[in-house]
Design goal:
alpha/beta; Rossmann fold; globular; S-adenosylmethionine-dependent methyltransferase activity; transferase; S-adenosyl-L-methionine
C-alpha cells in the first residue's frame, strides 16, 4: 500500500475521550470548479445546484458500492479468515508463511494492542467500557470480542445487510445476543442519540468515508463525556512543508488500490488530527503502525492461492474483495511506505 500510513491515534473529549486510527482511501471524480460571473447569477446557481446534485449522486453510488462489495465478499473473507475483517498486528520481520490460525491470532492481537495504546486496561483505576458502538462493524468480530471481554453492551453499524444479518447470527450462536446487536446504518448519520457510548470504536472503516469531517463529528457526537474514541484507519503519508499534494506516482498507486475497495478521499494522519483537535478533545495521540501490519496482506494473498482460497474466489465472479486480495499491488503500500514517506 504505497503512501499508506497505517496509523493509530488516541483522543479524548474535554472530559477525556480517546481514539485510534490506521487508514487508506479512494478519490471520486468531482465536478469542475464553478466560476460565477457578475452577470450570470441564475446560470451560476444552476451550475451550483448541478454540482450539489452530482455530489449527492456520487455519495449514493459510493454507499451502494460499499454495501455490494461487502454483501458479495464477507462470506469469502469469513470462510478463510474468520470473524475479523481487519489487519493483524505482528512483530516486525514476522515470517508471513505462518499458519492461518497464527494470522487470526494476530488480528485479535491488533484489537488488544489498540486498547493498550488507547489506555484501556483491565487494571484499576481504569474505567472499563459498558456501552460501545462499532462503526463499520463488518460481521461483528470486534463488537463480540469487546462485549465478551468487558461484559459490555455493543451496537454495530454497517452499510451491508448481509454483514448485519451474519453479525447478529454469530452473536446468537456465541451466546451474546443480549449484549451485541447489529443494524444497517450510515456512519455519517448514525441512528443513536448524543452521548450514548463510553467507547466509540472504528476499526478500518474511516477509509470508506467520503466526508472525514462529518465522520469525526458523528464519532464525537455519540461519545459520552469521558468516553474513549478509537479510530483505526488507513492514511497516506503527511505532506512536507513545501508540498501541496502527493506525487503523481503515489496518487496513481492509491487510485488503483482504492478502486478495488470503494475508498474515497485519502487524507493524512495530520488531517485527522486537525479534525480531532477542532473538537477540543483531550489526550489526542497518533502513531504509525505500518511496520506492525505489513506482513498481513502478503499472507492474505498467499491464502488466495490455496485451493480453498481459489475455489472461494472463483465463486465471487463480480467485483469484490476477491479482486483486491488477488492483486499484488496491495502489497506495495507497506513495502514502499518508508521509501515514500519523506
Amino acid at each position: 500500500m504505497a503512501c499508506v500510513s497505517y496509523q493509530t491515534a488516541g483522543l479524548s473529549s474535554s472530559t477525556t475521550t480517546r481514539a485510534v486510527l490506521p487508514r487508506m482511501c479512494y478519490r471520486l471524480n468531482r465536478a469542475s470548479t464553478v466560476v460565477v460571473g457578475a452577470n450570470s447569477r441564475n446560470r451560476g446557481l444552476r451550475r451550483l445546484n448541478a454540482v450539489a446534485e452530482t455530489a449527492a449522486m456520487e455519495a449514493v453510488e459510493l454507499k451502494k458500492g460499499i454495501a455490494e462489495l461487502y454483501d458479495e465478499s464477507s462470506g469469502l473473507w469469513e470462510n478463510i479468515w474468520g470473524d475479523h475483517m481487519h489487519h493483524g498486528y505482528y512483530d516486525p520481520d514476522t515470517d508471513v508463511s505462518v499458519s492461518i490460525p497464527d494470522h487470526r491470532a494476530a488480528q485479535i492481537r491488533m484489537i488488544d494492542e489498540v486498547l493498550r495504546f488507547a489506555g484501556i486496561s483491565e487494571e484499576p483505576p481504569t474505567r472499563l467500557p459498558k456501552n460501545l458502538v462499532d462503526v463499520g462493524c463488518g460481521i461483528g468480530g470486534s463488537s463480540r470480542y469487546l462485549a465478551s471481554k468487558y461484559g459490555a453492551n455493543a451496537k454495530g453499524i454497517t452499510l451491508s445487510p448481509v454483514q448485519a444479518e451474519r453479525a447478529n447470527a454469530l452473536a446468537a450462536a456465541q451466546g451474546l445476543a443480549n449484549q451485541a446487536s447489529f443494524q444497517v446504518a450510515d456512519a455519517l448519520d448514525q441512528p443513536f442519540p448524543d452521548g450514548e457510548f463510553d467507547l466509540v470504536w472504528s476499526m478500518e472503516s474511516g477509509e470508506h468515508m467520503p466526508d472525514k469531517a462529518k465522520f469525526v463529528n458523528e464519532l464525537v457526537r455519540v461519545a459520552a463525556p469521558g468516553a474513549t474514541i478509537i479510530i483505526v484507519t488507513w492514511c497516506h503519508r503527511d505532506l512536507g512543508a513545501s508540498e501541496k499534494t502527493l506525487k503523481p506516482d503515489e496518487k496513481s498507486l492509491l487510485d488503483r488500490i482504492c478502486n478495488s475497495f470503494y475508498l474515497p478521499a485519502w487524507c493524512s494522519t495530520a488531517d485527522y488530527l486537525k479534525l480531532l483537535e477542532s473538537h477540543s478533545l483531550e489526550d489526542i495521540k497518533a502513531e504509525d503502525w505500518s511496520p506492525y501490519v505489513a506482513p498481513f496482506w502478503p499472507a492474505v494473498i498467499r491464502s488466495a492461492l490455496t485451493w480453498k482460497g481459489f475455489t472461494s474466489l472463483h465463486k465471487n465472479n463480480k467485483r469484490s474483495i476477491g479482486n483486491a486480495i488477488d492483486d499484488p499491488r496491495i502489497q506495495e503500500g507497506p513495502n514502499q511506505k518508508h521509501e515514500m514517506n519523506v
